[in-house]
Amino acid sequence: MFRPLIRFFLLTLCLFVIRDAYPAEPQVYRLESAPDYKRIQAKVIKKIPLPKWYHEGLFYDGKSIWVANGEKGKIWVVDTVSGDISSVIEPIAGFTEGITKNSSGSYFATDWEEKKIYRARIENNKLIPEWEVSLKPEYPAGVIWAEGRLYVITWRRGMGTKFYLNEMDAEGKLLRSIRISRIEEPAHMAWDGKNLWITSWYSKLVYKVDIDKMKILGSFVSPVSLATGIAWDGKFLWLTGTHGALYQIDVDDPQEGESMEIKVSSTVFKDGEMIPKKYTCDGVEVSPGLSWSGIPREAKSIALISEDPDSPAGIWTHWVVFNIPPGESALQEGVPSTETLPNGARQGVNGSSKIGYDGPCPPSGTHRYYFKVYALDTMLDLKPGITRKALLAAMDGHIIGQGQLMGKYKR
To answer: What are the φ/ψ torsions at residue 140 (nearest 5 degrees)?
Structure first.
């Protein structure tokens, strides 16, 4: 009769041992926008062309910028004066996302494919792992050492990907997990001695973050589409993007330039509201009236992209317009589906490979539809009928202002 009691006691003891071996996760905090969130002025002061590759995380070693190259790529050490690649470093695994270094001389690198972070040393231009920490099921992107702590951005993919900023100690122990809910697809980070700078791959913005208060203080428009790596050299930020160049950026001189924020509005819905049926595939499917303000004086043209990031097929293009004259401040309702508009603007193809506007038509659930307006420092030498991807590539390095309006629709 005592055997069942003994088994119960042993099972209970085992459960307590397992619970002690796997302590509860730290409390999850949230990173939100500050009440006095501001648009930050930024100016490109140098551009260094890079060979084509993915160009993920950046690291500044006091003289050169290291460029991690993601999938099947190596790490380039770029001389910031000449722009030459002075050496190449072999990564630990096959998909190096980010790299940083602590005050003791240890390097930390994240690998997207392996879902790990490694601490390593350099031997003969090769990263040699000392230990590794699995971050499964999350995918690690950017990593930065700041004030005695290691910060790692991770993506938890699935139905509605979630993003986290994980604070760890030098041994890889998780201290705090911060949910990032106001930055779309955060990628990489820089530390300027006081604040974090976080790039957004999707929105092409760079955010300034007070990590102690867990507040987003402001942002500026990235000069490169699909912004990824970012580094701080003690005075300037360095920035790159997928297949993009390397940019040196001054964000410290409030005397230079104008606000890079463009305010976008519509005559038929407000930001975050539902788009009326008339402008969707369930209605007459005409384009909504849009207007904007805050175009910089030095702008030479305006471009517009409308897209659905919630499409099961990936980002779905709903509208592409470019070379809108900089003096224009609106697109009237019902823009015709012609290659060239009366004001000289040109239209590209939507996700259905047709010229002009393609109204919301979600297969299920509520989708978000972004209307993004870009101010450019040039007119684009492009023919009508280009794709969203081709337009983004052509705008790379020419964006001097940006704004957006988001509407929702559910069938």
So the answer is: -85, 140
In whole angstroms, what is the distance from residue 178 CA to residue 166 CA?
A: 6
Checking 252-259 for CB contacts under 8 A at 24+ apart, the result is: 253/41, 253/43, 254/41, 256/41, 256/43, 257/41, 257/42, 257/43, 257/296, 258/41, 258/296, 258/297, 259/39, 259/41, 259/294, 259/401
3-state SS class at 286:
coil
Could you read off the pLDDT of 148-171 as tens digits, one per residue? Answer: 999 999 999 876 788 999 999 988
β 28-39/215-221 pair status: parallel
Beta bridge partners of 219: 39, 207
Are β-strands 162-168 and 85-89 bridged in parallel, bridged antiparallel, or unpaired? Answer: unpaired
Find the distance separating the first CA and the last CA of the chain, reported in whole Å.
Answer: 64
> Which domains, ranges and CATH numbers included, belong to the chain?
25-250 (2.120.10.30), 263-410 (3.90.280.10)
What's the pLDDT score for residue 400? 83
The residue behind tokens 């230079």 is: 256
Confidence check: pLDDT of 259 > 60: no
pLDDT above 70: residue 65: yes
pTM of the model: 0.65
- pLDDT value at residue 157: 83
